Amino acid sequence: MLQSKLFTKTTKTLPKDETSFNAQTLIKAGFIDKLAAGIYTFLPLGLKVHNNICDIIREEMDNIGGQEILMPALTPRDIWQATDRWENFDVLFKLIGADKKEYALGATHEEVISPLAKKYIFSYKDLPVYIYQIQTKFRNELRAKAGLMRGREFSMKDLYSFHGSEEDLEKYYKDVQKAYFKIFKRCGLLDKTYLTYAAGGAFSKYSHEFQTLTEAGEDTVYICDDCRIAINQEIIKEQNVCPNCGKDKFRKEKAVEVGNIFKLGTRFSKPFNFQYTDGEGNKKDVIMGCYGLGPSRVMGTIVEALHDDKGIIWPEEIAPFRVHLISLKQNKQADKIYNDLQKSNIEVLYDDREETSAGEKFADADLIGCPYRIIISEKTLAKNSVEVKKRNSDKCELIKIDKIVKLFN
Ligand code: ATP
Ligand code: MG
Q1: Ligand 1 contact via 259 beta carbon (within 6 Å)
Q2: Residue 398: inside a domain
Q3: In this structure, is residue 78 part of a structural domain?
């Protein structure tokens, strides 16, 4: 991509009411735009990042047998009435159609997936099955001051699993935990993300959250460093020793919940009379699990967790471009390097702007945060070379021009 042609530019102008660091930085760098509190547009750079996160999630969900679908965001009142959540789900956005019927914008999709799955699951032979979607969710959040970390409109991956026994659910629940850690590793958040025990509801003692440590988080967790797990503030009152080692030595930290997994049991199969026939011909309620993860929240969390005072430091798989090529003088060699990198499928943002100073170009590159920066100038050209620098290091390396493509292959 030629930077001179990029739809967005970096800016110093911020919406007055934007107080979160992640949204401020993403707006400055031209990744997102704010329409209203908790409502953002994803611009070309931002959409690339968001898509990269979604691609990783898709891959890891497919790896554990997930099948992707897309459910409607507009949902009728009766399905929420069936589970008693029309009145009791406090953040549901409600509206009235021209048919005078009431609707809700999907805040989560148990009420859609359960009657849907009932149409295809009849016997134990149809189980287990794992269905997910990546979709825009709507929640009428009271406070939306955390930028992408708490949207009123946001993206969620929601996976639902259907089982014939609790043991089978338990097994899959563990597989999802492993898959989530793979996702957080690829998103650069592994070091700061903790499996966290939280309240479980009627069916199981605990649910589990994936909490990433950051001062910008709205949650508080208690970490057991020996076991590398955490307990959510809300359950530390009941669960005041580590469920793994039994010790009560905790470190208190601020964190954000990037994922949440839950054994639903029969909470949603019962109201929809969603049953299967077991091997002996008996009718039984289907046992369910649900597994949420928010790509847009993950994007905000990466910015909060991985930055310096100059800007964002994207992990390689998440970055909008792998390489930011900066030409300090418009020249044929820079064009050639750009074309060679493109031909080798190396994603590159080429700062070809003619009226922009070197200082501005460097500042923009640091703010935007691509993992590698290549600088080509009179000075480097004299040595038939370019300068290569990693975003997270101060070391510059001179690389011969004919070795560049190989360096990134
Ligand atoms: P929180 O406790 O932070 O309000 P939650 O427990 O309501 O979140 P879930 O209903 O489990 O969240 O949603 C699954 C995932 O969706 C969360 O782990 C998070 O990654 C994401 N998510 C939830 N609410 C929001 C939001 N308002 N903005 C952005 N992402 C969200
Ligand atoms: Mg929660």
Answers
A1: yes
A2: yes
A3: yes
Alpha carbon 162 to chain centroid, angstroms: 24
**150 CB less than 6 Å from ligand 1?**
yes
Contact 210 CB / ligand 1 (< 6 Å): no
Whether residues 138 and 204 fall in one domain = yes
- The span from the CA of 409 to the CA of 391, in Å, is 18
| Count of domains for the chain | 2
Give the pair of three-digit tokens for residue 7: 């739809």
In short, whether 151's Cβ falls inside 6 Å of ligand 1 is yes
Name the residue of 92, 136, 257 whose CB sits within 8 Å of the most ligand 1 atoms, as the mutation to test its pocket: 257
75 and 195 share one domain: yes
Residue range 9-32: mean pLDDT, rounded: 96
End-of-domain residue from the set 253, 280, 308: 308
**Closest ligand 1 atom to 259 CA:** 18
The answer on 338 and 196 residing in a single domain is no
Average pLDDT over residues 160-181: 98
Q: Is 108 in the pocket of ligand 1 (CB under 6 A)?
A: yes
Which ligand is nearest to the Cα of residue 298, counting in written order?
1
Note the pLDDT tens digit of each residue in 247-303: 999 999 999 999 999 999 999 999 999 999 999 999 999 999 999 999 999 999 999
Average pLDDT of the chain is 97
**Ligand 1 centroid to residue 62 C-alpha, Å:** 22
Domain that holds residue 330: 323-407
pLDDT at 201 exceeding the cut of 90: no
- pLDDT exceeds 80 at position 330: no
**Residue 162 identity (one-letter amino acid):** F
Q: What dihedral do alpha carbons 148, 320, 191, 232 form, nearest 10°? A: 20
Q: Is residue 314 part of a domain?
A: no
The string of pLDDT tens digits covering residues 57-110 is: 999 999 999 999 999 999 999 999 999 999 999 999 999 999 999 999 999 999
In the reported structure, the alpha carbon of residue 146 is separated from the centroid of ligand 1 by a whole-number distance in angstroms of 12
| In a domain? residue 2 | no
Q: pTM higher than 0.90 for the full model? A: yes
The CATH number that applies at residue 49 is 3.30.930.10
Cα–Cα distances (Å) from 29 to 10, 139, 363, in that order, read 5, 27, 10
Which of 69, 139, 132 is CA-nearest to residue 107?
139
| Distance between Cα 157 and ligand 2 center (Å) | 15
**Domain CATH for 403:** 3.40.50.800
Closest CA to 391 of 406, 407, 372: 372
Please tell me whether residues 158 and 283 are part of one structural domain.
yes
Map residue 163 onto helix, strand or coil. strand
